[in-house]
Amino acid sequence: MAGNRILSGMQPSGQLHLGNYHGALKNWISMQDSFDCFFFIADLHSLTTLYEDPQLLKKYSFEVAVDWLSSGLDPEKCTLFVQSEIPEHAELHLILSMMVPVPWLERNPTYKEKQDEVKNIDMSSYGFLGYPVLQTADIVLYKANAVPVGIDQVPHLELSREIIRRFNKLYKKKVFIEPEAKISDVPKLNGIDGRKMSKSYNNAIFLSDSEKDITKKVKGMLTDPARGRRIDPGDPEACNLFPMHKIYSTVKMQGEIISACKNAEIGCGDCKQKLADNLLESMLPNMEKRKEVAAKPKEVYEILRAGTEKARKVARATLLEAKTAMKII
Ligand code: TRP
Ligand code: SF4
């Protein structure tokens, strides 16, 4: 299926939340019927932040796999694998690192942003600087034509393309393919406190939360601060909850809420209940599926093992081709 290959990875940060689902997973699921998809758990990338607690990686990777399968990624349709179990990623990363000028990496906006943003972990490692080089190895090993990612990953993809061109030019062979970024338009989804939904902010609704937890979290969501009292009119556009209505409620209901909120005809409590009902209805099938998946951990491991075996064959062939082009084999 040449020309049809999609590849993407996700760092295992533990249980996935609605932000991860809408930002990536949903998009992946929609692609599995039409493309030759390879999706992997980027656990080596996670070591850039988890190097002090690496024992968490295995647990987190398993949780991510359970979330993938319960949400509808189908191992019959796509290849699911674990990055660290394919040593070709590490080897190609090393080879590529020899030809990537450090200033290219220092220019990467994520590199700078994370240094400023992350205060509790020392992000000045050699490995973190080389994050996009490892990501390039991930992509080229599978000769991916397109890489579905969020907009934040676009600079990484651009860098990958530069590295690929440099490699192909140096060794006079088009071993690697320059992939297209397939940008998913991620709806704005904030956490319950109004900040970006993130596990580390403790404000996320997880795919694995119980019905009770979800209702409780929705009930605790920040709303338009102008509505201090029930009689104060509000504005859904200024409300942290409303973006979720845009995803989970019908257009009709959204219209009703807009007008009722602006005229103080609905209380935030009722508005939240409506959201909780719609959210739960949409999540229910996956919650059922999760019970089945989580009850059979051996099957989850077997899916990853089989996917990894299949992926490794592809990775091995590409690495061989690269080393042959370089005449180092
Ligand atoms: N950097 C990506 C993220 O944090 C994860 C990732 C690693 C990736 N390797 C990749 C995504 C290769 C696409 C292709 O979201
Ligand atoms: Fe937000 Fe709904 Fe309250 Fe309006 S009524 S402020 S949309 S929660």
Could you describe the 3D structure shown?
The chain folds into two domains: about 220 residues, HUPs (Rossmann fold, 3-Layer(aba) Sandwich), CATH 3.40.50; about 80 residues, Tyrosyl-Transfer RNA Synthetase (Orthogonal Bundle), CATH 1.10.240. It is about 55% helix and about 10% strand. It has 14 helices and five strands. The longest helix has 29 residues. The mean pLDDT is about 95. It binds tryptophan and iron/sulfur cluster. Iron/sulfur cluster binds next to helix 12 and helix 13.
The ligands found in this model are: tryptophan, iron/sulfur cluster
- What oligomeric state best describes the polypeptide chains here? single chain
Major sheet size, sense and barrel closure: 3 strands, parallel
CATH superfamily of the largest domain: HUPs
Q: Would you identify the CATH architecture of the largest domain?
A: 3-Layer(aba) Sandwich
Specify the helix fraction band.
Answer: 40-55%
Give the strand order of the largest sheet, numbering strands 1, 2, ... along the chain: 1-2-3
The amount of beta strand, in percent, is 5-15%
Query: Given the helix and strand composition, which structural class is it?
Result: mainly alpha
Count, helices: 14
CA-CA gap between termini: 28 Å
Which CATH class of the largest domain applies here?
Alpha Beta
Count of spatially separate domains: 2
CATH topology of the largest domain: Rossmann fold
The global form is elongated
**Poorly predicted runs:** none
DSSP strand count: 5
Rg estimate, integer Å: 22 Å
Order of helices and strands: EHEHHEHHHHHEHEHHHHH
Average of pLDDT:
95
